[in-house]
Specification:
By secondary structure, the protein is of the alpha+beta class. α3 packs antiparallel against α4 and α8 packs across α11. Helices cover 43% and strands 22% of the residues. It is built from 11 helices and 11 strands. β6 and β7 form a beta hairpin.
């Protein structure tokens, strides 16, 4: 099982900004929310390399040149261009040594973000030239301001700004499609199979054999059209069932873990906390505040 990995050289100027957010449970359950946001004016040697981080990243180049390596390809990042990636995948981004990179960025997440990312991926490039760069830059500036001047109204306002930013990214990529075009016939049966057999010990090899397709082709097509790997989609099915059981039954967490196909209860608790932001017991208590 792959684990989160990151290496970086934090070579940025003193006037650069990096804010780390702590979204509320309400924001995690209902809104788009910020995990980190900032503005970097880089210095020579700046880079970030990571994978297996369950977060999405939007970065907008303000000046200079950046370099992005993602999905086996390399891209140059110029002013008024943005990239939108899922940080579970391997990524490397850095400054051009001769034309130092200046950019604003936000790590974000939310219950509906996979749908946005799915449509964005149909362009087959993580980089877009923004059609309305001024608005997108202003959105990131406003996110930073709201986190510095936090009020009870900040989180719904932040969600609205992130929705505007995501919409601008999709608009710039030109990927507004009819919902019926979203999942081709080659992917729908796999999704239905995972939804029906999520409690079984499934693997990519098992799926490939069942649908008579190569593991590489299955994984590539599934992620291209769903925005998730087959394993991530399987985990989301398991977590959805577990949340329902925690809300509406008194079954022990260990029994629920067994039912969803994760018999190691410690592993199940870790999976749940990574994706929901809280432990299974805390999630259950949040739905039964009087108990």
């Amino acid at each position: 099982m792959a684990h989160y990995r990151e290496q970086a050289a934090h070579n940025w100027t003193e006037d650069s900004i990096r804010l780390i957010a702590t979204p509320s449970q309400l924001a995690r359950n209902s809104f788009f929310y910020v995990e980190e946001a900032g503005y970097f004016r880089t210095q020579p040697g700046y880079f970030t390399e990571r994978e297996e981080l369950n977060s999405f990243l939007i970065a907008i180049t303000l000046a200079g040149t950046g370099i992005l390596k993602f999905n086996g390809k390399q891209y140059k990042l110029k002013a008024d261009q943005a990239f939108f990636i899922h940080c579970m995948d391997y990524q490397y981004y850095a400054t051009d040594e001769r034309d130092l990179w200046e950019f604003s960025w936000v790590h974000l997440n939310g219950a509906a973000i996979s749908g946005y990312y799915h449509y964005f991926q149909l362009s087959e490039s993580p980089v877009v030239t923004l059609k309305n760069p001024g608005a997108a830059k202003s959105d990131l500036q406003e996110l930073i301001r709201l986190h510095r001047e936090f009020t009870p109204y900040s989180e719904p306002l932040i969600s609205k700004i992130l929705t505007d930013l995501l919409t601008e990214i999709l608009y710039s990529a030109g990927n507004f499609l009819d919902a019926g075009d979203a999942f081709p016939d080659s992917v729908k049966p796999i999704m239905r199979y995972l939804e029906q057999h999520f409690n079984e010990p499934l693997s990519l090899g098992h799926l490939a054999a069942h649908f008579n397709i190569s593991k590489y082709h299955l994984a590539r097509e599934f992620k291209k059209h769903s925005g998730l790997s087959p394993n991530e989609f399987l985990i989301s099915c398991r977590i959805a069932y577990a949340k329902n059981s925690l809300k509406y039954s008194n079954e022990p967490v260990a029994a629920i873990a067994e039912k969803v196909g994760v018999p190691n209860v410690s592993h199940f608790i870790n999976l749940f906390k990574q994706r929901v932001g809280t432990t299974p017991l805390a999630y259950r208590k949040s739905w039964r505040p009087s108990q």
